[in-house]
Design brief:
25% of the residues lie in helices and 25% in strands. The protein is an alpha+beta fold. The chain has a four-stranded mixed sheet. Strands 3-7-6 form a three-stranded mixed sheet. It has a two-stranded antiparallel sheet with strand order 1-2. 20% of the residues are buried.
Length: 302
């Protein structure tokens, strides 16, 4: 066994408090629970524990400083016997069933560092969180719904999609992740939401936006038309003389705010659509209308 002062990295004049502080720090760093499967670290842990067991005992430390005993506590001239004291013994560099030196119970040190568990007992750890991506339809994201999901362990779940969920938002399902260790709880499943585009709607904040095609006749003369909303079709009046690009508001037809519970609005932008094929009658009518009239629609661009 190496010199116990060198093992702990302290001077021969180190106080009892300094010894204990150093040992606690090294024991926490080298403890097998924190270094599973590392034989080299496990051996260092044993050496540190044995060194502290000798030096914390005032009688043994004094005898070692006088050169009467070996680093493992055996009498000079003998090796491998280990040191014994009033409370029991410890094999060379090991952790036997008794005590380290006079009255040294390692359980007290480990309990203060690691809690009430015994050395080498697996640390109670929560299981690993698992991340999944779940693709949902636009209307389910806005209004809420349910979506099936198969976990890594082949478990089938129906995930509840909250109303007005956002792209990239994560839904936490407690206890649906990896298993815990040492009696710890299972991890969680984190469901990252991916939202499909909608062919008609788009969302900005809590508001829904829609581009609405209208005919030239509807724009000129006005009309009452049925338009889609996230809750189904509703009637809307197009005023006479509406230009393409005009935006109209349907109050309270948007998404529900998850905090205030108030609904946003739906905004409808008009897009005047001419016939797909040239229409001679339309051309004549427009030409006749334009005779003698001056309409400078680009004056603001000068």
């Amino acid at each position: 066994m190496k010199d116990p002062y060198s093992v702990l990295g302290v001077s021969k004049s180190a106080s009892d408090a300094e010894l204990k502080k150093t040992y606690r720090r090294l024991a926490k760093k080298l403890h097998p629970d924190n270094n599973a499967g590392d034989e080299k670290i496990a051996e260092q842990f044993k050496e540190v524990s044995a060194a502290y067991g000798l030096l914390r005992d005032k009688e043994l430390r004094a005898r070692y400083d006088r050169g009467e005993i070996n680093p493992d506590g055996s009498e000079k001239g003998f090796q491998g016997g280990g040191f014994r004291s009033h409370g029991g013994g410890m094999g060379q560099g090991g952790m036997g069933g008794g005590q380290f030196g006079d009255g040294f119970d390692p359980e007290e040190i480990f309990a203060s560092i690691f809690g009430s568990r015994r050395p080498h007992q697996p640390r109670r750890r929560k299981g690993q969180d698992k991340i999944y991506r779940l693709r949902v339809d636009f209307l389910d994201a806005v209004k809420g719904g349910k979506k099936p999901l198969i976990l890594e362990n082949n478990k089938n779940l129906n995930v509840t999609i909250p109303a007005n969920v956002r792209e990239g938002q994560k839904i936490r399902l407690k206890g649906q992740g990896g298993p815990g260790t040492g009696g710890g709880p299972a991890g969680d499943a984190l469901i990252e939401i991916v939202i499909n585009d909608h062919p008609l709607f788009r969302r900005e904040g809590n508001d829904i936006h829609l581009d609405l095609p209208v005919t030239l006749a509807e724009a000129v003369s006005g009309a009452k038309v049925n338009i889609p909303t996230i809750d189904g079709k509703v009637a809307m009046t197009i005023p006479k003389g509406s230009s393409s690009g005009r935006v109209m508001r349907l109050k309270g037809r948007g998404a529900i705010d998850p905090k205030s519970k108030k609904r946003g609005d739906q905004y409808v932008r008009l897009q005047i659509m001419l016939p797909a094929e040239p229409d001679e009658d339309l051309e004549k009518a427009v030409a006749k209308w334009a005779e003698g009239k001056s309409q400078d629609v680009r004056s603001h661009m000068a």
